[in-house]
Amino acid sequence: MGKIKEEKQDPDETIPTEGEELTYEEKLKFVSVIANPMATKKQTSRIYKLIKKASKQKTYLRTGLKEVQGKIRKGESGIVIFAGDVTPIEIMCHMPGVCEEKEMPYIYTPSRNDIGTAMGVKRGSLTVMIRENPEYQELYDKVLEDIKSTTVPV
């Protein structure tokens, strides 16, 4: 038979294996065009920390598109976090408009899998709504301040 030729891989183009984690910049490559305002790397880590704390409190963390949308329409308030790497984007592209209509702060993060990991679940989540709670009030206020300081392009 013949010799098997090995392809030389470009050292700049590395494909992460299962054990490796993508960096913030690499995750931004998979983000949708409409994902604005996007959280910075520092804001993203704060948001994930808030999600982790909120997941320990019952009924203070709403997860999933259907549940969050229903609670917003019923009048619940809080911070809404969207995943930026959703495909097809049509399933949730109306949600920022709903949040603006109800005057609720929202922001995008690069990865839905990271949102799920922050909640302590193996599966990712498209949308999360975090309600106020005295247990994590200081972090909640800091994230809210970050979101309000991030400008939304018109």
UniProtKB/TrEMBL annotation:
Pfam families: Ribosomal_L7Ae (PF01248). It comes from the Eukaryota. One of its GO terms (cellular component) is ribonucleoprotein complex. GO terms for molecular function: RNA binding. Residues 46-139 form the Ribosomal protein eL8/eL30/eS12/Gadd45 domain. Belongs to the eukaryotic ribosomal protein eL8 family. This is Ribosomal protein eL8/eL30/eS12/Gadd45 domain-containing protein. It comes from Meganyctiphanes norvegica (Northern krill).
